Amino acid sequence: MPPSSPNRLNSLGEVLNADVPLAEDKAAAPEAETITPEEEAMLRAEKLRTIREAIDRGSYDSDELLDEAMRRMQNAIENDNQSR
To answer: Are 1 and 61 in contact (CB under 8 A)?
Structure first.
């Protein structure tokens, strides 16, 4: 696998970690810029496309992304165990 570009990983990390307020969140934070459900779907599709392209190039791997994936998996397992 080719080495990952730090700049590319940083921009992917920004995309993955971006918090975009949804239209239904406007009541909770009226000053926040909101997006429509259609815009949200477009952003999600673009995010997925960007991630898939990075995976295909072999530039999506990093210790930070692995750590985040492991944290999310652990949380999902813990939440699943608590709901039983």
So the answer is: yes
Q: Which two tokens stand for residue 82?
A: 């608590």
List alpha helices for the chain, DSSP H: 6-17, 37-57, 63-82
pLDDT tens-place string over residues 7-47:
444 555 565 666 655 555 555 555 567 889 999 999 999 99
Q: Where along the chain do its domains lie?
A: 6-82
Q: What is the pLDDT of residue 73?
A: 95
Q: What is the dihedral of CA 15, 25, 72, 66, to 10 degrees?
A: 10
